[in-house]
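Justification of computing resources. Each target in the renewal requires a structure prediction run like the one illustrated here; the chain below, 221 residues long, is used simply to show the kind of job we budget for.
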Amino acid sequence: MTRPPRIAMLGGTFDPVHNGHMRSALELRDTLELDRVHMIPAPQPPLRDTPQVSPQKRLELLQTAIGDTPGLEADARELERDGPSYSVDTLRSLRHEYGEQARLVMAIGWDAFLGLDQWHKPEQLFAFAHLVVIARPGHAEAPSTPLMELLGEREVDSVSRLMASPHGQVLRVTLPSAMAISATQIRQSLEQGKSIRFLVPETVERAILREGLYQRWQSAH
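Resulting structure tokens:
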């Protein structure tokens, strides 16, 4: 019998995509034995003082970072959607694409997880997908009472138990690398003319420097 496909959604602003994002995607793929990881840029990052790049450019940098890496895909569906973009709508779209038996996972970091009960229709997420929380070693803050009530009895303790059903469970994982790289740090370094070598994929670094992205001096030309 053919195993149902195992698919993950990994969202973010990717502003810009960096090596931490890429290692997380790869390690999720390997830890959960995923067939595909959809890396999905959000339409609009929070307002910042640093120079902005367009959503399309963030997508292009993500595509550049992925290259021909097996199992990773830069997915533009949230950028192409009219109106507000909610995770539940993205999961509904992926569920429709892959079918009812696919093992669909939404992967989020610990900070995002702590605010999950404040998301748009958070209880509906579990009707479409499992939730995989990427834990940070030494991260002490505990989930709130409303969040624990949302999770209920959904938490499982192994990948095999998670993948026994198409959706509805929660698994916490600690990835091997746990790289402490910040997109904010990268933008600030670029603004200050400092090197971002080894923080982002080499192809992304070349594209950023070639096009003057995130660099204030570029606006004077």
